[in-house]
Description:
The complex is a heterodimer.
Chain A: E1 8-16, H1 18-28, H2 38-43, H3 53-60, H4 62-68, E2 74-81, E3 94-106, E4 109-118, E5 121-122, E6 124-132
Antiparallel strand pairs in A: 1-3, 2-6, 3-4, 4-5, 4-6
Chain B: E1 18-19, H1 22-31, H2 51-64, E2 75-84, E3 93-106, E4 109-120, E5 125-136
Antiparallel strand pairs in B: 1-3, 2-5, 3-4, 4-5
Amino acid sequence: xxxxxxxxxxxxxxxxxRETAVRYAGASGDFNPIHYSxxxxxxxxxxxxxxxxMLTMGTALRVVTDWAGDPAKVRSYGVxxxxxxxxxxxxxxxxxxxxxxxxxxxxxxxxxxIDALCDGVKVLGSATAxxxxx
Amino acid sequence: xxxxxxHVGKTYPPTQPYLVTAxxxxxxxxxxxxxxxxxxxxxxxxxxxxxAVLAADAWGALFDDPELDLALSQxxxxxxxxxxxxxxxxxxxxxxxxxxxxxxARANTxxxxxxxxxxxxxxxxxxxxxxxxxxxxxxxxxxEA
Lengths: 134, 145
């Protein structure tokens, strides 16, 4: 595949629902109830449940691994959790849209900047992955 | 005396070994809605951020250390970074070792940076998972705030 600075990765749009949150809680072992119980979320001053930050981070990386094919090519990945993703209790959940673009290529490693938007709000900051492209 | 710069460099004993299994990898990939074939079958690799599951095992040491006065319920996870040597895969027996890398405390809050090294029980390094945690202690008297 041809990779150069400015290459745009295929976009990804994902609905994160309460079911997604419960599945991620079980799979990750992070059972903080603010992710599946409005009662506990409100007790913390939130309007309702929010997605696990690691669920958003893990889903965002699919932009890179879907593109690279082999997940073993991912060398590093970092994010800032800038805004929570509210997950309403309905069939649609939260629609999160991910995009990626190559910002650097050197020594067989591409640096990809990832955008993650929910309702037009940036939910991850400085999301960057390094991936082997040789 | 809560956590302070004096704790930078402190390392905790490794966690109990965790055996990565194909079933757990399938479950984690499904939770991410990720159908990458590398995560399927009898000998899968784990999705890269599965490393967070094992790293979080090591966080317990931080909250169990009475010297630090930290509580998970008063902690926000603000930054996360991973650097992998190779993917985790089914059959890996992994231990996680946590080191306090940085502390910035002021008033009733502290930013704590930790690095968790994941390695096999045979000593092969797999991944470093670095996190920044923002801890807030309750303010008992508003005048102190």
